[in-house]
Amino acid sequence: MQEELARQICENLQLQLTPEDEMRLARRPTQNREAYQFLLKAQYHLNRSTRESLQRGLAYARQAIEADPAYGAAYAWMSVAYSLLGIFDVVPSAEAFPKAKAAAQKALEIDDSLAEAHTALGVVRLYYEWDWSGAERSCKRAIELNPNYAWGHAIWSDWLMAMGRIEEAITEDLLAVELDPLSAVLNARLGMKISLRGDYGRALEQLQKALELEPNLVYTNEMLARIYSRKGMYEEALATCQRVVSLCGGNPYSRALSCLILAMAGKMDEARKILSELKGYRNLDSEPLVFLAETCSLMGEKTEAFEFLEVAYQQRGSKLSALNIAPNFRNIRTDPRYADLLRRMRLPRVPLPYPEAS
Hints:
The protein has helices at 2-12, 19-26, 33-48, 51-67, 72-87, 93-110, 115-128, 132-145, 150-162, 166-179, 184-195, 200-213, 218-230, 234-248, 252-264, 268-279, 286-299, 302-314, 336-344. The chain is mainly α. It has 3 domains: 31-147, Alpha Horseshoe (Serine Threonine Protein Phosphatase 5, Tetratricopeptide repeat); 150-243, Serine Threonine Protein Phosphatase 5, Tetratricopeptide repeat, CATH 1.25.40; 250-358, no CATH class. Helix 15 (252-264) packs parallel to helix 17 (286-299). The longest helix has 18 residues, at 93-110. The radius of gyration is 21 Å and the shape is globular. Mean pLDDT is 90; it is low at 20-26.
């Protein structure tokens, strides 16, 4: 019915469809109502972006594919699920991102006009493969196909941030939030980007909006703790960090964040105690490894900082994509090992976007 209506409109307006238009018109998302309902549930849970909701979103995307194995959009959202699981370190990078790429490629084989699949492919190229030109192409293609897809703009913003183009990155994240104002994670990401220009007051306002939308989003609380610390609000930073510990059950991620926030607050002895404890852990994920590298950088322990970064590099940790502009690595930016790490990541070196704000 939709296809016939579209054709009638074109005929009445005397429009001529190109062969590409005809192909797009002929594509059907799915005729399986159950698959469609599963996909709606997947989208709902993935948009919440908590650790639990990402797992549930992935499960629903799988059910949509089981109900209709030719449903391109279901593969696209499966790729989105794995991408987000990798970005937020819920699943190790080496597991999450190759699965995201495979699902995105399958989706594009079925329908190459799916902006979600191009965006997820951009995530893999940006966060895991460090294929900066490939990520740029994927992000631009996604926005071209669907300018109203909020995550397309959000991932393009991340590419701009990695290149040190902070004002452009903020503009893209502002657009993402305009397109999806009820997304807690998009609001939180905007707050983080604003903090990179040193405007901590405005960043905190944005993060509070995110917190109101989803109080238990770990990412928002992590960013709040960081920015409270940079603003000198150490009591608030430590209290927020304790909330992360509660939300995460005291896992290595939350303990490593506590270590970092204590160091940012100048409580070096307490930070060293946690640092010593975490050194005994085997197989730390890349996210806590980067936190510990930041901690050592703040302490002036450069060799240890690079040891942690090297393990995160071997794991292809997603947080390394922001290495260029991370404020807590100021102390090691002039070290030749820092330049070598950027070279191996094929990441062009850029100046820090803004001086530390008071």
